[in-house]
Amino acid sequence: MTNTANIFLPTGSIPAVPAAKTGPPTPFPWVGLITLSAAVFLSVTSEMLPTGLLPEMSRSLDVTESQIGLLVSWFAFTVVLTSAPVAIWTRRFPRHGLIIVVLIIFAVSNILTAVAPTYEFVVAARVLGGVAHGLFWSVVGAYAGHLVPKVQIGRAVSITVAGGTLAFVFGVPLGTAGGHLLGWRLSFVVLAALMLVGAVLVWKFLPPVARYSTGAPASAAKSLTKSPRDATVPAVVLICIITGITMIGHYSFYTYIAPFLLDGLGVDLGLVAPLLFAYGVAGAVGLVFVGTIFGPRPSLGLILGLAVAALSVTLLAMFTATLPVALIAFVLWGMAFGMLPPLMQTRMLHAASPQIRDTASAFYTTAFNAGIGGGALLGAVLIDSVGLELVPIVYVGLLVVALALVIVTDRLAHRRGRA
């Protein structure tokens, strides 16, 4: 029987930035990782901003709120369709330069969104942003792992993913508040300007890395899908499946969180941005838990995160008429979900061998964004067919499926390890 005890945590060092065998240890790359985190902040804010401005964009463009929610699907499905091909096409380009180019394309996409005269024009602008986003995450997903040795991957990923958490803490709420006060178009203009600032910061402060952690020039797609000798492929596939299911459930609900807060809980429009801020702060607390407690124990953290998320969303759906309970559940949900992306990415980076790490990141990005796009689409279908109140119930069901997969695969890995 094949020993698969390390199905999620294969042994072997991961060569990152080449270093001498002797001499003082390389300092932890704080500045570079914080710069990378800032780029992630801008990217996630750009992706998620329509969720906070959904009512305003709906009225301005004369379309339904579910159609605005589908902007997230257009963006995410573009990532799904283009991330792997674009990653292969750009595999010989310097990773550092690609991040700068991507941020500039993001700026163009947001400017086009801001000046869009019609809904269809906004869709086209979002598709352009989606192409950039797919390339961005295929590079960024592995970039942190290239900067540090394997033992520090969890810490480095937590710092990088913190940018996404801060996007929910500050980016989306501030963009939402600005859109309420000054119009949704100005929010996208400001975001475009920040993208250009981010490109300058990346150029100046982010250390360059080798194109591949092993320097192998092999085709990215072949390295993951056509290399039977790499024993880590099944683990990467399982992580991608769990990630996709979790994201479908989450974004079927979170994409339409503004209408849920307004209509489901009955809060005032002016409270939407502060509540999104509270949700983001709670997510930051969850990220701290990852960095301090669960980074070395991603399986345990992932099980707890999925379980708490399912419980809190269940309470949120059951107590819509009891605002204090619903708001506590809402914040608890934010904390639990804040743990999930960094834990799933940490598991993926630990699972993938050095030869397929860049490619595994691209496929992980595909699964993640397939979940985002599929979730937004599923939410739109549910809202138009059965109503918003059933969306969180579907979300809980998908969380339970993801939780079961994590538990079963972990138990199988442990049993085979003892065999």
TrEMBL record:
One GO MF term attached to the UniProt entry: transmembrane transporter activity
Annotated compartments: Cell membrane
Record keyword Cell membrane present: yes
Entry keyword annotation includes tRNA-binding: no
Keywords recorded for this protein, A-Z: Cell membrane, Membrane, Transmembrane, Transmembrane helix
Ranges of residues in domain Major facilitator superfamily (MFS) profile: 32-414
Source organism, top-level taxon: Bacteria
One Gene Ontology term, aspect cellular component: plasma membrane
Residues annotated as transmembrane: 28-48, 68-90, 97-117, 123-144, 156-176, 182-203, 231-251, 271-293, 300-319, 325-343, 363-383, 389-408
Protein name in UniProt: MFS transporter
Species the sequence originates in: Cryobacterium glaciale
